[in-house]
Amino acid sequence: MRDARVVSLTIAAWIFYTIVNAGVYFGFGGNAGTIMPHFLANEAVLLVFVAIPVLMFAFNWRFSVYPQAFILIILTAILLLAVAKTFTGHAPMLVNVVVVLFSVIGLITNFEAFVAGARFRRNYEENNRIWVEKKQAKGRNK
Fold first, then answer.
1. Residues 6+ apart with CB under 8 A from 70
2. Considering Cα of 91, then 96, then 102, then 104, what sign does the dihedral take?
3. How many Å separate Cα 108 from the centre of its chain?
4. Residues 132, 42: Cα–Cα separation, whole Å
5. Which stretches are transmembrane (predicted)?
6. Percentage helix, strand, coil, to 5, in the chain?
7. Whole-model pTM above 0.85?
8. How many of the other CB atoms lie within 10 Å of CB of 45?
């Protein structure tokens, strides 16, 4: 794996999302027995979505930036909705603070992961172009 930073930032964004998701599901009241299956299903779906770009980056696939960008857009929308819910929901102040704090940290991590992914893609294309030019120059010299 050439760029572990992209993978670690994507996983960190998912961890921040999990904390926010738990705060939204369990912090606003309700029966934990009915909330838990929805929470776990939500986490499982997002874990699969996060695993796809992480595995693609692990294998250095050049199109891994696109599913990663898709996931980061989904995470950004969900984190913004979580912040909006703190203004409309009736939760204890600590839950609101935790949701907003981790949403902001998650959004910053999302942005960093997106920038790192774009940098990975640009470097990949540049290295590929250099390799092709060297191969063509080597072929002309024979």
1. 49
2. positive
3. 11
4. 44
5. 6-28, 40-59, 65-84, 91-111
6. 85, 0, 15
7. no
8. 10
> Could you give the CA distance from residue 50 to residue 70 in angstroms, rounded to a whole number?
10
What distance in Å separates the CA atoms of residue 119 and residue 142, rounded to the nearest whole number? 35
- Give the CB-side neighbour count of residue 78, counting CA atoms within 13 A: 24
**What is the DSSP track for 62-93?**
TTTHHHHHHHHHHHHHHHHHHHHHHHHS---H
Mean pLDDT of each 10-residue bin along the chain, 142 residues long = 71 83 75 79 82 77 74 78 76 77 82 80 80 83 68
**3-state helix/strand/coil string of 26-57:** HHCCCCHHHHHHHHHHHHHHHHHHHHHHHHHH
SS3 110: helix
